[in-house]
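Hi R.,

Here's the chain you asked about this morning:
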Amino acid sequence: MTKYFEGIGRRKTATSRVRIYSGQKASTVNGKSIDSYFQGIVEADKMVNYGFVVTDLLDKYYFTAKVNGGGVNAQIDAIRLGLGRALLAMDESLKPVLRKAGLVTRDPREVERKKYHHIKARKKPQFSKR
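And here is the predicted structure, written out as tokens:
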């Protein structure tokens, strides 16, 4: 069995589980290549592999990611966070570099829930005086 390091990334409602392996295979997302999974997204490969680019490990390691929920951009951000956390699990000395690149902190913003008697989360029906 091959050894791997795992990291979990979340963004909005997207969740990803990223595993890093040593070698030079192609990275995959849900069993597909990055370009075929994120079809139509310009430079999705660069956005997803940003953790490897910052740490200069692009040709030494590859990853597999399982991602579900959320939209395309939220999934990309979830994979980036999962990759950053997996790199931290592999080598703790990379933390300053990853922190400076913004790959350690989870983005806490979530969609606010809709309230009753409101049209959206905060928008209320138009008030009529008469």
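One quick note: Strands lie at 5-11, 14-22, 28-29, 32-33, 61-68.

Cheers,
M.
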